[in-house]
Design goal:
The complex is a heterodimer. By secondary structure, chain A is of the alpha+beta class. Chain A has 3 helices and 5 strands. A 4-stranded antiparallel sheet of chain B has the order 3-2-1-30, with no helix packed on it. In chain B, strands 4-5-6-7 form a 4-stranded antiparallel sheet, with no helix packed on it. Chain B is globular and about 50 Å long. Classes of the chains: A alpha+beta, B mainly beta.
C-alpha cells in the first residue's frame, strides 16, 4: 500500500498521559505503510513521544515495547516491512504495547 | 508568611507537600506523572517557581519535566542524553568491559544563580548540563575522560552519578559522587576532574589506596564552609576539611555506620544527620527502630533522635536522596522511606511526625523554603 492512509494507533496508558492523548490516535500516513512510517507520523504530531517507543538516535525499538496488529506480533519485523492491509484501511489499529515485564 | 514546599519523588509518581512556617498542617498534592518513577524533583534556588523532575520508566525511557509556576503546570522538556563521542567501556560486575549505556537521570542539581542552568547525574555514570532550562543536554566529558573511567564498576543499584554539590562560593568548583567509583572534584567548571578518595577504606577493594572503586552513597556540604564535606559511604561516615584532599572517619558511636543519606543543619555547620541502616545485607534500621542520628560536634559523637519515629517493627530504608533540610530559623528536617512515609521535624530533629504514611516507595525528598 503506497497511498495516504488513515491509521489508528492505540498507545499504552503512560504514553497517552505523557502526550496528553485521550483515546486512540488517528494519523494520516503518506507513502508505504510500515511501523517506521507510522512512528514517524506519530512523533511528528507528538514530539514528546520521541525516544519513548524507539531510541531517539538509533530509531531502534525500545526493548520493552511491542507492536501488535491483526492478532500478530510485529515487534521483530523489520521497521520497513509492510503493515497488514487492515491497518491501512483503519479496520484494525496498530497497538503499541508496554511488554509484560517485572513479574 | 514563610512556608515550605516539599518535593517528593517516588516509584510511582511525584507528590508536593506544602505548609506554612509552623509546619503543622500539610497540603498533599499528587500523584504527578502517575505510574512513572520520579528519581528526583527539585527547585531552582535562583527561581523557586522553576522546578525540575526526572521522570523515567524501564519501558519508555527518560523524560525531564519542568514547571515554571511552582508545580501548578508542567512541560516535558529534553530527554536526549547522549554521551560525548565514543562512549567506551567501564567494568561490569564480573570485571569484563561493558559499554557505557544511558539508563536514567538519578539527580538534578540546578545552578544557585541561573535558573536556566541545571546539572544531571545519570546512570551509567556521567555528568550532563543544560543551559536552556532542561531542553538540550550536553555531557561534561572530562569526568568520564579522567582516565579512571574504564575501571569504574557499578554498585548494586547500578553505576549511577547520584550526588552533585555545587560550591556556592566558587562557581568553578563542583563535587560529584558515583557508585561505585567514588568522589570527584572539578576546579574548572566541570572541564577536568580529579578523584578525591584518599582516606576512604572500602573492604571490598584489595588495594587500600585505590584511586577509585569506593561506593560513596552521599555527600553533603554546609554553604558557609564549602571545604568541609560530610560523606555517608557504603560503610563509614566520613569527613573532609580540605575539599576532599583527605578524608577521616567520624562514625564514632553510631550503632551502624552503614546508611544512605547525610544532611547538614542549615545554620550549624558542625551539625550533621544520618540514618543508620543495619548493614549492606539488611537494608533496614538496627533492631527495627527508625532512628535519625545527629552529631553537633562535626561527627564522632552522635545522639539518637527517636521522638515520633517508630521504635519497633520498622523495616524501611531511607534512600540517599530522600533527606532534606529547610532554612527556617527553627529548621525543618525531612526524610522519606521505602515504606512510603514522609517524616518531618520542625525543631531540628528533636521530634518528628509523619506528613503522609502510605505513598509509594520514596526515592527523593527536597524542600524549598518559601518567603
Amino acid at each position: 500500500m503506497t497511498g495516504p492512509s488513515t491509521v489508528r494507533v492505540r498507545l499504552p496508558t503512560h504514553l497517552r498521559t505523557l502526550a496528553r492523548i485521550d483515546g486512540e490516535v488517528r494519523l494520516e500516513v503518506a507513502g508505504p505503510l510500515t511501523t517506521r512510517s507510522v512512528l514517524d507520523a506519530l512523533e511528528a504530531r507528538y514530539p514528546g513521544l520521541r525516544g519513548t517507543i524507539r531510541d531517539a538516535a538509533t530509531l531502534e525499538r525500545r526493548p520493552f515495547v511491542r507492536f501488535f496488529a491483526c492478532e500478530q506480533d510485529l515487534s521483530l519485523e523489520p521497521p520497513d516491512a509492510p503493515l497488514p492491509a487492515a491497518v491501512g484501511t483503519g479496520a484494525e489499529p496498530l497497538l503499541i504495547v508496554g511488554a509484560m515485564a517485572g513479574g | 508568611m514563610s512556608g515550605v514546599r516539599i518535593l517528593v519523588g517516588t516509584r510511582k509518581g511525584a507528590f508536593v507537600l506544602t505548609a506554612d512556617g509552623t509546619r503543622t498542617s500539610w497540603d498533599v498534592a499528587g500523584p504527578l506523572f502517575a505510574g512513572w518513577e520520579i528519581y528526583h524533583m527539585t527547585g531552582s534556588p535562583a527561581d523557586p517557581d522553576r522546578l525540575f523532575a526526572s521522570q523515567s520508566s524501564g519501558w519508555f525511557g527518560q523524560q525531564i519535566q519542568r514547571s515554571d509556576d511552582g508545580g501548578a503546570s508542567w512541560e516535558q522538556v529534553g530527554n536526549r542524553f547522549e554521551y560525548d563521542g565514543v562512549p567506551g567501556t567501564h567494568q561490569w560486575y564480573d570485571g569484563t568491559p561493558h559499554p557505557w549505556e544511558f539508563a536514567r537521570v538519578w539527580h538534578l542539581e540546578p545552578s544557585p544563580t541561573d535558573p536556566d542552568t541545571v546539572y544531571a547525574g545519570v546512570e551509567d555514570a556521567a555528568l550532563f548540563r543544560s543551559q536552556d532550562g532542561g531542553r538540550e543536554w550536553q555531557e561534561l566529558p572530562g569526568l568520564r575522560g579522567h582516565g579512571s573511567g574504564p575501571k569504574w564498576q557499578p554498585g548494586a543499584g547500578g553505576m549511577c552519578l547520584h550526588t552533585i554539590v555545587l560550591d556556592p562560593a566558587d562557581p568553578q568548583r563542583i563535587f560529584v559522587a558515583i557508585s561505585a567509583a567514588g568522589a570527584f572534584r572539578s576546579d574548572d567548571g566541570g572541564a577536568s576532574w580529579q578523584p578525591i578518595n584518599r582516606g576512604l577504606q572500602s573492604g571490598g577493594i584489595p588495594d587500600p589506596d585505590a584511586e577509585v572503586g569506593h561506593c560513596v552513597h552521599r555527600i553533603a556540604m554546609h554553604p558557609s564552609r564549602p571545604d568541609v564535606l560530610f560523606m555517608q559511604k557504603h560503610w563509614d561516615v566520613m569527613r573532609t576539611d580540605d575539599a576532599g584532599e583527605s578524608w577521616h572517619e567520624i562514625s564514632g558511636d553510631l550503632p551502624s555506620d552503614f546508611g544512605f543519606p547525610i544532611a547538614v543543619h542549615p545554620h550549624e555547620p558542625d551539625t550533621a544527620y544520618v540514618v543508620p541502616i543495619t548493614s549492606d545485607s539488611y537494608h533496614y534500621p538496627p533492631d527495627g527502630r527508625l532512628r535519625v542520628y545527629r552529631s553537633r560536634t562535626g561527627g564522632g559523637e552522635w545522639e539518637p533522635l527517636t521522638d515520633g519515629l517508630p521504635q519497633q517493627h520498622c523495616y524501611v530504608n531511607v534512600l540517599r536522596d530522600a533527606m532534606a533540610v529547610d532554612s527556617l530559623d527553627d529548621p525543618g528536617i525531612y526524610f522519606g522511606t521505602t515504606g512510603g512515609q514522609v517524616y518531618a521535624s520542625a525543631n531540628a530533629g528533636d521530634s518528628w511526625a509523619p506528613i503522609v504514611r502510605d505513598l509509594p516507595a520514596v526515592l527523593s525528598v527536597e524542600v524549598q523554603t518559601l518567603s
